[in-house]
Amino acid sequence: MNILPTVSSDLKVAGRNILKLISKNIKVNTFCVIRVSKTESHFINVLNRQVQLATEDAKINVYDTF
User: Fold this and answer.
1) 42: CB partners within 8 A, 6+ apart
2) Is the pLDDT score of 39 beyond 80?
3) Which of 44, 45, 42 is nearest to 59 (CA)?
4) Coil, strand or helix: which one is 21?
């Protein structure tokens, strides 16, 4: 049984709620909720205030993230 789609959906909903709360309390330009695998980082949710540094649903090589 593949539960990954359900986990991804739940993570997206939780991420939206987390970013909503964080945006009220932490003054940073960019904050991301990311799912990391052995090969890639998948940006689930992104909060950009002024400069767009990340995009939702973007996937990049895990070694290119920090």
Assistant:
1) 34, 35, 36, 57, 58, 59
2) yes
3) 42
4) helix
